[in-house]
Amino acid sequence: MRWSLSGLPDLERLTAQPFAHRGLHGEGRVENSRAAFQSAIAAGHGIELDVQLSRDGDAVVFHDYQLDRLTGHAGDVAARTAEQLRAICLSGTDETIPALLEVLQLVGGRVPLLIEVKAPDRKVARLCLAVFRALAGYRGPVAVMSFNPEVSRWFAAHAPKLPRGLVMSESGKRGLRGRLERRFAWWRSKAQFLAYDVRDLPSRFARGRRVPVFTWTVRSDEEWQRAALHADAAIYEVPAA
Questions:
Q1: Of the chain's two ends, which shows fewer C-beta atoms within 10 Å, N or C?
Q2: Which of 147, 145, 144, 136 is nearest to 105 (CA)?
């Protein structure tokens, strides 16, 4: 390791095990569902999950901005209230879309959590505040992260003790312009760790920040080997052999 955990004990706990991407889903368990989270807990692995904002300002656990792929409904998640979303079943199950607070109560600190905050533009305060409020009183190891550097910057200003990270991929962002964009995003974010696309490892940029590196999304033996060599923790969909 070329980074120091001095003053960041929660990050040390977070890098101690792999993370199931959107929970341990498959075999009838839908991503970001209670069943997927229970399965990850049973395996003793951390959980990576996604949150976004309902119309009335709740943090809800769902990846896509649209409902179509994972439910029998159409339209934007952000156009529905939290109550309306909690009434929508995930495809092929009787489970509904959970609020972040429900998932935190389900996990109860038994395994670490990585919360990816899905913020499509610079107006992040309302969603970040919803996540912050849901986490009030939560005692388990947890961190927030986002592709949007404004999210980590918000938490640096308003919840500096909560570990925060920047999610990055070099896909479509090669060359000088891509390097400059990554440097600016890192500077802007005030992040404490990176969550880096496994397809881009090894990365001079990732290790050059001298911070913990999580890597996503690990789906093969070769990617597990790459993660072991070039990252501190894997976020996976296919468990290690």
A1: C
A2: 136
3 state DSSP class of 129: helix
Q: Provide the 10 A C-beta neighbour count for residue 8.
A: 17
Residues contacting 205, CB < 8 A, separation 6+: 170, 179, 182, 183
Handedness of CA 201, 191, 38, 63 (dihedral sign): negative
> Over its length of 241 residues, how does the chain's per-residue pLDDT go in tens digits?
334 434 455 788 899 899 999 999 998 899 999 999 999 999 999 999 999 999 999 999 999 999 999 999 999 999 999 999 999 999 999 999 999 999 999 999 999 999 999 999 999 999 999 999 999 999 999 999 999 999 999 999 999 999 999 999 998 888 999 999 999 999 999 999 999 999 999 999 999 999 999 999 999 999 999 999 999 999 999 999 7
User: Is the pTM value of this prediction over 0.85?
Assistant: yes
Q: Are strands 46-53 and 59-61 parallel, antiparallel or unpaired?
A: antiparallel
